């Protein structure tokens, strides 16, 4: 669990991807949480995208919301398999 999201899965903010990013940037950026490491006005551009998924997201809150939404969708799909 993080202060931004309660997601605790492979897709969530405590998942392996975010853990690797936090470890790789340890000592180089401020913040204990992955989302703390993002500037308020961060711009994330996705080179590869799927229909209905944005190619560009601006702002930490929007990145958090997109991550939470995507995680919820992935969790629902995983339960139906």
Could you walk me through the main structural features you see in this protein, from its secondary elements to its overall organization?
This protein is mainly α. It has one domain. The chain contains 2 helices and 2 strands, in the order αββα. It has a two-stranded antiparallel sheet with strand order 1-2. The longest helix is centred in the last third of the chain and has 21 residues. The chain is globular. 7% of the residues are buried. The C terminus is likely disordered.
Query: What is the overall shape?
Result: globular
As a percent range, the share of helical residues equals 25-40%
How many domains, as an integer?
Answer: 1
**Structural class of the secondary elements?**
mainly alpha
| H/E element sequence | HEEH
- What portion of residues belong to β-strands? 5-15%
Annotation field: number of helices: 2
Assembly annotation = single chain
**Mean pLDDT over all positions:** 75
Radius of gyration: 13 Å
Strand order of the largest sheet: 1-2
Quick one: how many beta strands?
2
Termini, distance in Å? 25 Å
The biggest beta sheet reads: 2 strands, antiparallel
Low-confidence runs: 75-81
